[in-house]
Each structure stands twice: as C-alpha cells, then as structure tokens.
Amino acid sequence: MKKGKRSQNLSTRREFLIGTAGLALSSVLPACSRTAKTLQTQPTAPEISSIADREPRVSCYWVAKREHKSSYPLFKSTIEATTDFAWLSKGDRVLIKIALNSGKRYPATTDPWSVHCMVNLLKEKGAGKIWIGDQSGFGTVQWTKNRQEGSSRQLAKAAGLLDVIEDSGAEPCFFEEFGWDAYRPAIPEGEHHWKRPIMIPAKLDEADHIIYLPRVSSHVLAGNTLGFKLSVGFLRSDSRGEFHRGGKQFYAMYEEINHVPQIASKLRLVVSSGRSVLTLVGPNEGPTAKPDYGLVLASDNLLAHEMLAYAWLQWNRKFETSSIAHMTMGSHTKSRSRYNKQFSDRMWPDKDGRGTPPIDYFEPESLYNHPAIVNHLKRMGGRPRSIAVEEINKQPDSSVIDFLKRQLKA
Known about the structure:
Largest sheet: 8 strands, mixed
Number of helices: 13
CATH topology: Rossmann fold
Number of domains: 1
CATH architecture: 3-Layer(aba) Sandwich
Structural class: alpha/beta
Helix content: 25-40%
Low-confidence stretches: 1-43
CATH superfamily: LarA, N-terminal domain
Strand order of the largest sheet: 7-4-3-10-13-16-2-18
C-alpha cells in the first residue's frame, strides 16, 4: 500500500467516537455561562474508603492568559519544588512522553511551550540525549506487521510539536518508526487485568529516565485523559486492541500500563500545562476553556498529579464551559460503550465474531470513584491520607484553589 494514501479503514477517532452534528458547535460556542452544572449520575465504581498512610505531593503555579512565555522561572521553580533532580546524572538519557493522539493542536495534544521549558530545564540540570515522542492513536496511525498507514511524525508537525522538539535540540522519537519487531513483552507488577503480555517499545531500555508531559482533557471513552492514560501511547497496536476490547476492565487496563517495570522504575516526573483545557467530549474535539489564569502542575507521583489535574478539569467543566455546550455535548459520554464498540470492531476485527464487550458508563461526583483511580488506589492499599498541594504563586481568586482542594478531599 502506498504511503500517503489514506484507506477507508484509516478513520479518525472523531469519525468513530463523535459522529454527531453537535460536536461541530464546539468551535463556535463561547464559555459564556459560569453556571453550567456537570452531569450527575451514579458511578459504577465504588469509592475506596480505606486510608493508606501516604501524602503524595503536587506543586503548581498560576499563569495569566497569554503570559506563559515569560513564566519560565515559575515553571522551573515548580519542577524544583517537586524534585531535587538527584536521580539525574550528567549525560543521562531522558525520554519525554508527550500526548499526540492526533494532529490537533494544544490542548488536544501536549502544550509545545511545556516541551520547550522541560527540555531547557533538563539541559540546565545536565541531561544528555533527550528523546521526545509518542505513537499516535490507532484511528490516525495504523502500523501493523503488514501495513503502515499514517505517521506520528507528520501529526506532530501538524500539531506544532515537531518544530519545537527539533529547535530545542531534542530528538523526535515516534515508536512505530522502529518497526513491529522493535517491541518487547512486559507484565505489570502485582495483580492486573491483562490476559497477555503488553508489547512496549524496546526503546525504553535505552532511556535512563522517563518524564510524562500530558494535557488536561476530557475523553469520550475514559472520562478524562491525564497522566494515567498517557501510557497508552507506549503500546503496539495489538496491545491497544486488547485494552479497547477489555470490557469492564478498560479503565483498569490503561492504568496498569504504568506499573510495567520498564516504565515504573524510570518514571521521574509528570508535568501538565493546563493553560487550556478540552472540557467535554475529547480526546481531539470539543469545547476548549481558556481561563484567565491557567494551571501548570508537576509531581513525581502519578496519583497526586492525576487528582489535581482531574480537579482542574472539573473546575473548567463547571465554570468555563457554556450551558449550551453541556446540553449539546454533555450526553456523548453516555454512548461511550457504543463508540468504543464501533471503533474496536472495525480496527481490530474479532475472528470468533463475538465483538467488543461493553465498557462501563460513569460520571463520578467524586474524583475518587473514577474506575482508573479506584484501580490505582486498590494497588496502593487505599486512599492517601491527603494530597499535599504547594502553590508556587497565588491564584488571584482564592475560590478557585478552594474548589480544587475540596475536590481532592471529597
């Protein structure tokens, strides 16, 4: 098959996961209402009540709209409040994992500005080779043993990330380009829901350290896409099919990728730029909030990052998303199982004809009963005693940080 020719199978996630006229309104709907309420439904996953004697920490700072380019000192201070970089020796090799599900620009993908800041800081701290990359979603990049369609590199260019990577002196790293056989089997530590080994890039063996640079976004299937779900980009396409066909274990399976030893033993930082937030639908389309003060957050603990990023997503859904957007697009998540079935059955046809089992629908009132978070808490022995939040500077409106902290205590 000729490269560059798009087959009928190479359809974007928008075609499979949205499929409604309401989504087209997202580009023109202003965040005109600060009274919109989030959808209230009964969660399917039970909240974890047991308490583990832990207090993971997350640092953050507030950046005024359009002033991010002058905020590098605050970015640096936030990271240094998270880690002393004792893990980084001069010349160490670092892999920065970005969010590149499609070729859409931030916040549908990682903030290019955060990539620039992270590379500068790593160089200041003595890092050697720095790789930056991902493998885009199977709706846009289908590289299998016998077929190569789509390109993460071209999507990175369209998203404004490739130029930033190259201009910063880092090396682009798009996993499918290494070939089908450049993956190795791995198994998450502890109990897990994967029936087969997970196929991850052998490139991970070359890295001394891994840093996640996600975005803050809604996801029509997963509810959100933050730090936990970023790990899906490590999977070879057959393993992606396994998790999309995981049924009720869909959420647990993507969370468990982070517990693969080749990832868990090297993950040092998770840093998100929440200057803009994709508040509904997602992962590529939907209304975008651009609050007066964006939140940049960092942690060396996946849970602490996940919780504050999720709380920030909830704030933007509630106060920076119009009532019209909630009415026209808030119901998409109710069809997540159908969307996933349409996508999975077409991309990974089941030879025995049983099709894709349903995944659970939920819209939790508490952050702590998102199924992926519940799975993580079970593995960790319970909820932490608290999530410690350190603000490097102060949000001018104290009610915002109060809302976030209430969410963390819910």
